[in-house]
Design goal:
The chain has 191 residues and is an alpha+beta fold. It has 5 helices and 8 strands. Bound molecules: coenzyme A. Coenzyme A (COA) binds next to helix 2, strand 5, helix 4 and helix 5.
Amino acid sequence: MAEDVLEGRRLVLRALTDADAPALLEAVTASRDALHRRLGWAAADATLAGEAAFVAAARAAGAAGASATWGLFEAKGGALAGVAALKELGPAERGHARLALWVRTGRTDRGFATEAGKLVVDHAFRRLELRRLSARLDPANRAFRRVLKKLGFRYEGCLRADKRLNGRWIDQECWGMLREDRAPAKGGKKA
Ligand SMILES: CC(C)(COP(=O)(O)OP(=O)(O)OC[C@H]1O[C@@H](n2cnc3c(N)ncnc32)[C@H](O)[C@@H]1OP(=O)(O)O)[C@@H](O)C(=O)NCCC(=O)NCCS
């Protein structure tokens, strides 16, 4: 399983379980406007059954090696602060995944996405031995652009009018990070 427990200073990332569905529903409901604006989902009322189905689908995709999904839990108190995922985890020889994450409204601008992103990026290159990570960005999403820059991603280009979001065709910025883009670890070694 690709979703090892990842521990940071303020967050613990772990696979979601059925028992997390109520917390997920609460976080998605509280974040509905931001998720709808940026990702296009959570437009309709979320339901417990829908969140339970999301957890089950994430578990199945994880078991199949197609993706890895973590809940972001605050180390202090254990509240669910968001979700991070490595999507499009294909065959090992491809060595690629796409990073996606969200942080719940009320917990943003505290560095949580950056902390979670660093843990996932480190896991992707070290443990999963991926070659490349990518991310897609709505050009209006300045916060996620900043997070990607802080993680070490580089701008690679723009797909024009590539995605339908809330009734409009929007551009998609492509960002990427190669294993060798990472800063040398202590002792001069790269992951
Ligand atoms: C994008 C998102 C994940 C960021 O989460 P976060 O926990 O607030 O991120 P961080 O606190 O680690 O970093 C945010 C950075 O963006 C900056 N930022 C926030 N809003 C900004 C804005 N409107 N313009 C420019 N920078 C902005 C913050 O100042 C911070 O940078 P800094 O550390 O240099 O000050 C969160 O806003 C979110 O979940 N949005 C909805 C879903 C989404 O867009 N997901 C990404 C695509 S999958």
